[in-house]
Specification:
- This protein is an alpha+beta fold.
- It has 2 domains: 2-10 and 84-211, Nuclear Transport Factor 2, Chain: A (Roll); 25-81.
- Helices cover 43% and strands 28% of the residues.
- The chain contains 8 helices and 6 strands.
- It has helices at residues 2-6, 24-30, 35-53, 58-81, 85-101, 105-111, 132-135, 138-148; strands at 112-119, 129-131, 151-165, 168-179, 185-195, 201-211.
- Strands 2-1-6-5-4-3 form a 6-stranded mixed beta sheet.
- Strand 5 and strand 6 (201-211) form a beta hairpin.
- Helix 3 (35-53) packs antiparallel against helix 4.
């Protein structure tokens, strides 16, 4: 994460504790589009070459190749057609960032829990905990956009997610933004999610882990 942020400008983000890694089976079967299928396909080719050179196994070379090739196709199908909860949360995080930058109040209301809060420990005492009722007020959004002078560009550099329970999860993302007339700045955020009764993930807590230019950075 630090390298990604550092490539954007001259700043380097501090070390931030990462979220737990996904189970290896989920990562390979569902979240690595080409890693497992590619490995099995290479194994199929290697098996074909080796077995055809072995007189005792030459007759089995083509069947073995086809079986492994079919397994590679199956792995690719799983990776491209099954969306895990972590992938859903990663996409949800990207959408939340875009909605916040665009000041899309309707979209934010749809993505934030009614009791959601935003915590910015680096800010003044008054602004450290902002409830959603204030966050989504048009006056607050207008004042913040006015203070920033508008963003000319932004991007999400990295998103990770972890499932903590049937209806509880977290995501973590590093973001860069470029206010009008200024250079790019980086930040790292952690989002706590709660699944509602309709099965939608709602952000219940958004915490700034690091913001360039705040605190000791």
């Amino acid at each position: 994460m630090n390298v990604l942020l550092a490539q954007l400008d001259t700043f380097i983000a501090p070390e931030v504790e990462p979220l737990p890694s996904p189970p290896i089976t989920d990562a390979l079967l569902y979240e690595s589009t080409w890693l497992l299928p590619g490995a099995v396909a290479l194994l199929a080719i290697a098996a074909l070459v080796v077995m055809r050179r072995n007189k005792g196994a030459a007759k089995l070379a083509i069947p073995a190749f086809l079986v492994l090739l079919l397994a590679a196709a199956g792995a690719w199908f799983l990776n491209t057609n099954v969306t895990t909860e972590r992938e859903t949360l990663a996409e949800r995080t990207n959408q939340l960032v875009d909605a916040a930058v665009a000041a899309d109040i309707a979209r934010l209301r749809d993505m934030l829990a009614a009791d959601a809060i935003v915590e910015v420990p680096q800010a003044s005492i008054i602004a450290r905990r902002i409830p959603v009722s204030i966050l989504l007020s048009s006056d607050f959004i207008s004042s913040q956009l006015g203070r920033l002078g508008g963003l000319t560009d932004h991007g999400v550099q990295e998103v990770t997610a972890a499932i903590d329970g049937p209806a509880s999860a977290r995501s973590q993302t590093s973001i860069w933004a470029q206010p009008q007339g200024q250079g790019k700045t980086g930040s790292i955020w952690r989002i706590d999610w709660r699944k509602d009764t309709d099965g939608d993930w709602k952000a219940k807590r958004i915490e700034a882990l690091w913001i360039q230019g705040f605190g000791s950075n």
